[in-house]
Write a structure and sequence with these properties.
Chain lengths: ~240, ~425, ~300
């Protein structure tokens, strides 16, 4: 003889409404399922803000195939130094210039560049952060995610030279979103772009003013940038896709 | 009339026997029976029960023929193994005059699928203010013996006392819908943890229990019969046990849904689970089952309450209370207390006692030589899955959709003629 | 991925925190010259209001518009609703119009749950009967976190007509999820039977709770409850359960006073308290827009 009301119908209406238990309600940043950046279905990371950190235990053969280190910690330091010099050169000593990092890894890069510029010339360049999530054109493909911080230096961006800093330049869609976001925040006199890695495959007419390293890649490959501030290690690796 | 030989049926679950049915009565019971020109019904392994009697059915006619008619409700009843149903008075117009009860009674005879015994209203228009013409209904062709304002409680204690007294003149009984209306204003579901969580106004158990306590004392005082509709709480069971212990002439019914479902069902906000009295807690359900087995609660009655789609496909608060019950009642009872009751216990609680309370002398009788052939054949091994669209009722508001239940009515005979054969209504 | 926000219980701690964090970013928008984001461009949000609630409707409308969604206001007055169209038929109409989200306010508890069965889009509960009001609880939690810096470990006193309060139900669930300790204070008649099962303490005495409270949330008490014998008189109610200056002085220095509005000044709260620096009542309104933007973004922003 059965007990009242128990287990006669599979699942209550409530549980059907609220989704299956254990499913995260919203996707977290960098979660693998959110990776394809408007280029579905290829499992390619093109979204600098969403590149996830390699775990310390990861070997040279990742689940995504063989991995190759493209830039070591020392390479990254040299590249940052070079971009800092180029910025000083092209901006007449970084006068009236601010650096806006695109979260996640663009922000520590911006701080490193500012620190190098200060070391080289004694100039203090204001640094800020510009989150572009709400301006992305691929939200419907990727799932809603947590927002990064947007912090503008005191004085804002009006009439100043803004250099956007990002880790990887790929389709150009992140930069497009960043330009839209800037337009809503003010009117810079000039906008430039600095990236650690340019891996090609642009989908929009966008180019970088400062490039740390050009890396020719196949679409199926995946560029992973790790920085000490966010990932505990400085390293850029190329993960082989399906070969 | 056709003669039938039912082969191999187990009366109340006993030895296999053949039943010869002729001229509306069971002519002979034995083995190897045959008769010239008889139609043979293979009942090998089926259990024969006296035709079930429902003391509490809403047939909705006259007034809401879109939800149910006497004919569709009768067909539902026959498929559920019933040979008689008592039709509640809350129709439109209300069955509070000899004219309306005779109309329902006549419609029942025309449908010819079960004996429809109308119940008369206690008060004019169910308004609880003035006694209806109880004697006229009793003297009418419908021979009304049960009076009820079901849907409403006869809340006024003086009026209740008078009704109990008055119907003694024709051995009538008042069937009370026990609900103190001042305690259930705006009530949506059982008052308790689930209602608190769901933000719905509660229907407290005490609103039922206080009326039952009052009514058994009134019945004792005036020496009348009282029947309590759809008992739903553990506290009501205690009061009934006390009253019966004192020798008060009270009988009580419980519905299949109160024997199975709890208030947790409301969590879906699906009004198919809205009913009055409301679904209660697991503790109440356990107490009701025990009381039915013990006999403190005398019978199972369906409170079959068909409602049109628009009265259920809406917000919970706006939905009408009630559930279908006729086609599923026997299966639910088998499921929840079948082992404890046995076939004889089921016959007692679903046929003999309700027939006695209603004064239906042709029903609730063992299939025995000379008895009216009102019986039903049940396949105890069958299991079936409830499909609302497959029910014969005009409405779809069954709370058991998609449940798989034991026991299937294969055939029902009313006055010696089949109303159901091979699990299908014959007309 | 949750599709609907029907109850505060739909949110686990991680999700709720994400809503509050997202709301904090959305709040920054208020200081910008361009107070608009392109995020929900091309999406349609319907405000389906069966009850008058101008403040909640405007808050949702502002939130949707700041995210560039198209907003359709569908109110019971002057529409087919008042001509007796059923909720289901209305749902089918909205479905046919391509509503991506329906924000529903309804006097019947559970109406949003019913609606969610009938449409493909997202349903956001903007208050259903005496059941829940999850976005109110989110904005209350956001306000507490902004003022006091945290939620975990806070002592929150919710005072008043708990029985009929959707705000109280949602707040109890959400605050419990986020680690705050809730005490419900009301006359026994205004606490539901079954409240013992809630993750909250209960008390009949306001004065004993105040010295340890970090937050006091006053609920609106309708004078009509008096006619149903929930309490003898408005004056006796305010004497025992109203928040006046004398009572406010018993609160710790840092404690804040909240009210979901609209207030019955002089009934559950005196004007001096409502207008004091401890009061967050105006902030709550501003925070409402940010929190509803966060909810709409997280429910609609990512759906394919």
């Amino acid at each position: 003889m059965s007990y009242p009301s128990s287990g006669r119908q599979s699942g209550s209406d409530a549980s059907q409404r609220t989704g299956s238990p254990g499913t995260p309600a919203f996707r977290a940043p960098g979660e693998p399922a959110t990776r394809p950046d408007g280029t579905v279905p290829a499992p390619v990371s093109s979204a600098p803000v969403a590149v996830s950190a390699p775990s310390p235990s990861e070997t040279d053969v990742s689940p995504e195939g063989p991995a190759k280190t493209i830039l070591s910690a020392a390479d990254i330091a040299r590249v940052v130094d070079r971009i800092a010099h180029q910025i000083l050169e092209k901006t007449s000593g970084a006068a009236d210039t601010i650096l806006l990092g695109v979260p996640t890894r663009g922000v520590p890069l911006a701080h490193r560049l500012a620190e190098r510029i200060h070391t080289f010339e004694g100039v203090t360049v204001p640094v800020g952060a510009l989150d572009v999530t709400l301006y992305r054109d691929d939200l419907r493909l990727r799932g809603a995610r947590a927002l990064g911080r947007t912090e503008l230096p005191p004085g804002g961006i009006d009439g100043r030279r803004v250099i956007l800093i990002d880790d990887v330049l790929f389709s150009g869609r992140t930069v497009r979103a960043a330009l839209d976001a800037l337009g809503d925040l003010g009117r810079p006199s000039v906008v430039q772009l600095a990236v650690l890695v340019d891996r090609g495959h642009r989908e929009l007419p966008i180019r970088a003013d400062y490039v740390g390293k050009n890396i020719p890649t196949a679409l199926a490959e995946n560029v992973r940038v790790a920085l000490t501030e966010t990932d505990g290690v400085d390293e850029v690796r190329l993960l082989g896709g399906v070969r | 009339m056709t003669t039938y030989v039912i082969k191999g049926a187990r009366i109340l679950g006993g030895q296999k026997k053949d039943l010869l049915i002729r001229d509306g009565v069971v002519a002979e019971i034995g083995t190897g029976l045959s008769a010239a020109g008889a139609q043979v019904v293979d009942a090998d392994g089926l259990v024969a029960l006296p035709g079930l009697v429902d003391l509490h059915t809403h047939l909705r006619e006259p007034g809401r023929e879109d939800a149910e008619t006497v004919e569709t409700g009768s067909r539902s009843a026959a498929l559920g193994g019933y040979t008689a149903v008592c039709a509640m008075a809350n129709t439109s117009p209300v069955a509070d005059t000899a004219g309306v009860v005779e109309q329902v009674w006549r419609l029942g005879r025309e449908a010819g699928l079960v004996d429809v015994q109308p119940i008369g209203a206690v008060t004019v228009g169910l308004a609880g203010e003035q006694l209806a013409e109880l004697g006229a209904m009793a003297d009418s062709a419908a021979r009304v013996r049960i009076f009820s304002d079901d849907g409403n409680c006869v809340a006024d204690p003086r009026l209740m006392r008078r009704a109990l007294e008055y119907v003694k003149a024709f051995d009538g009984v008042v069937a009370q819908h026990a609900e103190e209306p001042r305690l259930t204003s705006g009530a949506q579901m059982h008052e308790g943890e689930v209602a608190a969580r769901l933000g719905m106004t509660g229907w407290p158990a005490v609103a039922e229990e206080s009326i039952i306590a009052r009514d058994v004392l009134l019945a004792e005082h005036v020496g009348a019969r009282l029947h309590v509709c759809h008992v739903s709480t553990a506290g009501s069971v205690e009061i009934l046990r006390w009253a019966k212990g004192r020798g008060i002439r009270v009988t009580a019914e419980v519905t299949p849904h109160h024997l199975l479902l709890t208030d947790e069902r409301a969590t879906s906000y699906d009004p198919v689970f809205k009913v009055n009295p409301p679904l209660r807690t697991a503790t109440d359900v356990a107490a009701l089952r025990a009381a039915l087995v013990e006999g403190v609660i005398d019978i199972v009655a369906t409170d079959h309450a068909p409602h049109a789609v628009e009265d259920k496909e809406c917000e919970w608060a706006y939905a009408r209370p009630g559930m279908l019950g006729l086609e599923t009642a026997l299966s639910i009872v088998l499921d929840v207390v079948g082992d404890e009751l046995g076939w004889d216990g089921i016959a007692e609680r679903m046929s003999r006692t309700p027939a006695r309370i209603a004064g239906l002398t042709g029903h609730g009788l063992e299939p025995a030589a000379g008895a009216p052939a009102n019986l039903t054949l049940v396949d105890p091994a069958a299991r079936w899955t409830v499909d609302p669209a497959g029910l014969a009722s005009r409405s779809r508001n069954t709370p058991y959709a998609a449940m798989t239940l034991p026991g299937r009515v294969v055939a029902t005979f009313l006055h010696g003629e089949p109303t159901v054969l091979d699990g299908k209504a014959v007309k | 991925m949750i599709r609907h926000l029907l109850s505060a219980a739909d949110l686990d701690a991680g999700t709720a925190t994400m809503v509050l964090d997202t709301a904090a970013e959305m709040a920054a928008l208020a200081d910008r010259e361009v107070k608009k984001l392109p995020t929900l461009r091309g999406r349609t949000v319907v405000n389906l209001f069966y009850e008058d609630s101008t403040r909640t409707r405007i808050s949702f409308e502002a939130a949707a518009k700041r995210l560039s969604a198209d907003v359709i206001n569908f109110s019971a007055k002057g529409s087919s609703v008042s001509k007796g169209e059923s909720l289901k038929d209305t749902a089918l109409t909205l479905q046919a119009m391509g509503a991506d989200a329906v924000v529903i306010r309804h006097s019947a508890s559970g109406a949003p749950h019913r609606l969610a069965n009938w449409i493909d889009g997202t349903v956001v509960n903007a208050g259903d009967g005496t059941h829940e009001h999850p976005t109110q609880a989110l904005l209350d939690a956001y306000t507490m976190r902004s003022r006091l810096g945290r939620l975990a470990g806070l002592n929150v006193a919710i005072v008043g007509d708990v029985l009929h309060s959707r705000v109280a139900r949602s707040n109890v669930l959400l605050l419990h999820t986020l680690g705050a300790k809730v005490t419900l204070i009301a006359p026994p008649t205004l606490l539901p039977v079954g409240v013992d099962a809630w993750p909250a303490e209960t008390s009949y005495h306001l004065d004993s709770v105040l010295p340890d409270a970090d937050v006091v949330m006053m609920l609106r008490v309708q004078r009509e409850r008096m006619d149903q014998a929930y309490f003898p008189s408005a004056r006796e109610y305010s004497r025992r359960y109203g928040l006046d200056v004398a009572r406010m002085r018993r609160l710790p220095e840092h404690a804040i006073v909240m009210h979901p509005g609209p207030m019955n000044r002089g009934m559950e709260i005196t004007p001096e308290v409502a207008d004091s620096p401890r009061s967050t009542i105006v902030e709550q309104v501003a925070n409402g827009v940010s929190v509803r933007m966060a909810v709409l973004y997280l429910l609609l922003g990512g759906k394919a």
